[in-house]
Design a protein that fits this description.
This protein has about 300 residues and is of the alpha+beta class. The chain is about 35% helix and about 20% strand.
Length: about 300
């Protein structure tokens, strides 16, 4: 008997009714904040993700479903949607439209992770991108929108954690300092941390191995290395969240979901749905001021992006 591919699953009634209710709630909340739906292809050129997500990230090096097409080109099933949205923004000249472009998406993503309970190789993501503004108020609005969505689906007991990963001006200096400190301690850490210490040191801060936590707690904090502009921006985001009555906690070791994003980062954690301290949902903030620069200078010029994903 032919079975579903390992790491995938069938969604059947009555579960599909719950999925429909969640998706309808997301559409309703997004429309209220003036976000419009965008639908991008499931297939994209491999270089879009290699350059946009980062060639040294786990997604690109270990998790992408990539294959050669009949014409010799390399194609990939999308592992996330932000790169696709930015590609569509540039290709379709959405920068010619007035104002901030607010877009949301729903759909399947694909990563070849090790199958385990609650984690699948085809998973579904709802996300939003705000493109064209660096306003801290927009960052706070994105987070507020996620709060409203959680309330709409009656999710309780969630916690908002925030941090900043700086910008193209201050983050490289912090990474250099972090790499210097890791050179002294990486040999005592897990195999993944030893590898990431040289290729992607920020990801070391996200390690969940209990034995590595004392070392990680002793590493430098990026909040202490922010440039004046990023520091002021992060302060303004927190002030705006407080004015909106949104409770949060600053977590200086917070660096994910996607390292390519600059500016404040935020994550959501709910004890009700999480297992083994896994994150159920996330929101990264701040918008791309000029995505056209990204075509020539790749990740270095991508100074800000707004995203929610869960």
């Amino acid at each position: 008997m032919i079975r579903a591919v390992k790491g995938t699953r069938d969604l059947l009634p009555p579960s599909t009714e719950v999925w429909n209710l969640v998706e309808e709630a997301a559409r309703r909340v997004f429309r209220a904040y003036n976000y419009g739906e965008i639908r991008t292809p499931i297939l994209e050129e491999t270089q879009l993700f290699a350059r946009g997500v980062g060639e040294e990230t786990d997604i690109v090096t270990k998790e992408m479903y990539t294959f050669e097409d009949r014409d010799g080109s390399s194609l990939t099933l999308r592992p996330e949607a932000t790169a696709s949205v930015m590609r569509a923004y540039i290709e379709q000249r959405l920068d010619q439209r007035p104002g901030v472009q607010k877009l949301y998406y729903l759909g399947p993503m694909f990563r070849r992770e090790r199958p385990q309970k609650g984690r699948y190789r085809q998973f579904f993501q709802i996300g939003a991108e705000a493109i064209g503004s660096e306003s801290p108020s927009l960052d706070a609005e994105v987070i507020e929108m996620v709060v409203e969505f959680f309330r709409a689906i009656r999710l309780e007991g969630f916690q908002l954690l925030v941090n900043s990963v700086g910008c193209a001006k201050c983050r490289p200096a912090f990474i250099a300092k972090l790499r210097e400190e890791l050179a002294k301690a990486a040999s005592s850490m897990c195999a993944d941390c030893q590898r990431r210490a040289g290729t992607n040191p920020l990801r070391v801060l996200d390690c969940k191995v209990p034995e590595d936590q004392p070392i990680i707690e002793g590493l430098p904090s990026i909040v202490d290395h922010l440039c004046p502009e990023c520091g002021a921006h992060f302060d303004a985001v927190r002030e705006s969240l407080a004015e909106r009555g949104i409770e949060f906690e600053v977590r200086t070791r917070l660096v994910r979901v996607w390292i390519i994003t600059c500016g404040p980062r935020s994550k959501w954690f709910t004890e009700r749905w999480a297992r083994r301290t896994r994150w159920w949902a996330a929101a990264a903030t701040t918008a791309w001021p000029n995505p056209w620069e990204r075509r020539s200078t790749r990740r270095a010029s991508a100074s800000r992006s707004a995203r929610t994903a869960w």
